[in-house]
Amino acid sequence: MEKRYVLALDQGTTSSRAILFDRDGGIVARAQKEFEQHYPQSGWVEHDPMEILYSQMNALELVLGSLDGRVGIGEIACLGITNQRETTILWDKASGRPVYPAIVWQCRRTAELCEDLKRRGLAEKIKEKTGLILDAYFSGTKIKWILDHVPAARQLAAQERLLFGTVETWLIWNFTGGASHVTDYSNASRTMLFNVDRLCWDEELCALLEIPMSILPKPVPSGAFHGEVVAGLIGLHEIAGLPITGAIGDQPAALFGQACFRPGQAKNTYGTGCFLLMNTGTQRVKSEHNLLTGVAWGLGNEVEYAIEGSAFNAGSVIQWLRDELHLIDSAARCDELAESVPDSGGVYLVPAFTGLGAPYWDMYARGTIVGLTRGTSRAHIARAVVECIAYQVGDLLEAMSADAGICFPELRVDGGASVSNIMMQIQANLLQTAVNRPRVVETTALGAAYLAGLTAGVWSNKDELQQNRQIDRVFVPDLPREKRDRMVTDWKRAVERSLEWETPG
Ligand code: ADP
């Protein structure tokens, strides 16, 4: 039987999804299971690793159950996994039981520990080796926290029974019945323990955080044979024997799913926040602008790097307009209002609700609205909201191009807010570059499917994937450059007014 389909699992922060793709990159079936978020203390975020596993298996079962004979299980070639990055799980390899809940990427419990490492002057070394800015997001300090606070963890580590994994590691270990304890390079790049040039765990950093190297998974290319699904777990008997041939973190997966295979090609995901990644090819770029660098993917013997920046607040600003200010009743209404005026009437909104990320990195910045006059209407405010999302992406791309010394040919877009035509048009105008929106916006799962399928031979090369990409719409700049330059200058003046607003301590 010809194997023409690829199964992708997308284990996200709030839900687990399973999607079956055909050879054209089209969606045949999909299912989604949400799971619980736990906030045990202010700033802490946890998931139950067993719930992550079961929700993922449940989504998988639902997809298989929905096929109704349309696709035979024997026609599925392989499985690809993409996942929320940095989230940290430690478990006992004898029993398979986690020793503590998963500490989620958003969790700030190790912020003080990170400050301490900064005071000890370690930020530069960490950046040099890992490509990351020393921060509580990444797994390293989360592992240390569990080892320091859960007595069973250190005891199991001493007996060499403790294993660490990010979510793809945890899923692969379980799906293979404990046979594979691996992490792909893209996920390893977010642990703050991985040397991104040498593609191995960094002994010095592990020692610094007192993390025994015996608990770490083996770093492997993203597209590779990661093991076979074993029967035994509920729901997996149907796909027993299926090879797992792709594993990659969610943002690089979207870069792959958008077919950004050449240096300079970039994608931005417009969700609650924005995640912008640019392919920098086989070269790792060292950022001078507080951006992050890491492995985008490893495929066979080839490793490609990406440079990454994010804006904390993007779609969330639209939600704020709806839920807090009640100026709109839906996100779509924000677009209508923004479209009803030719510009923002000189109003600029800087959404520094939680400080500003790259390229400003000011945790003490706070949101501001400037340029109000008696004639300012809610349509102007809505326009300023839509514009502020595009300005932030513009700032990130400007920094990225400077770091990488690469001119980007266009920006590829996805995510919930990329449906906004007005936002995408404004984005094209601010970048003075085309903005390209594909038909399939499930780019994260698609990226995992592509990696798995390339490895398993469903597709023979990346050119085939490039041809699969169907464009929904391309937005081309229609604003004179001088006007655009004036707007960007005023945006930067507005940003300056938001900086260092909150006083430290
Ligand atoms: P996440 O994966 O971060 O949860 P999504 O990719 O699902 O986010 O995108 C959700 C965001 O998209 C919301 O913050 C919402 O404000 C925004 N959004 C949804 N529809 C529109 C629209 N028509 N115009 C602008 N923004 C929208």
How are the elements arranged and paired?
Layout: E1 5-11, E2 15-21, E3 27-34, E4 46-47, H1 49-65, E5 76-83, E6 89-92, E7 102-103, H2 111-119, H3 123-130, H4 139-149, H5 151-158, E8 162-165, H6 167-175, E9 182-184, H7 185-188, E10 194-195, E11 200-201, H8 203-208, E12 218-220, E13 244-249, H9 250-257, E14 266-270, E15 274-281, E16 292-299, E17 302-311, H10 315-323, H11 331-339, E18 348-350, E19 368-370, H12 378-404, E20 410-414, H13 421-431, E21 434-438, H14 443-456, H15 462-468, E22 471-475, H16 481-498
Bound molecules: adenosine-5'-diphosphate.
Residues 271-272, 315-316, 318-319, 331-332, 334-335, 415-417, 419-420 line the site of adenosine-5'-diphosphate.
Features:
single chain; 505 residues; alpha/beta; seven-stranded mixed sheet; five-stranded mixed sheet; 16 helices; globular; binds adenosine-5'-diphosphate
**What is the strand arrangement across the widest sheet?**
16-17-15-14-20-21-22
Q: In terms of per-residue confidence, which ranges show pLDDT below 50 for 5 or more consecutive residues?
A: none
Number of beta strands? 22
Percentage of residues in strands: 15-25%
Largest sheet features = 7 strands, mixed
Helix coverage percent? 25-40%
Distinct small molecules bound, one entry per kind:
adenosine-5'-diphosphate
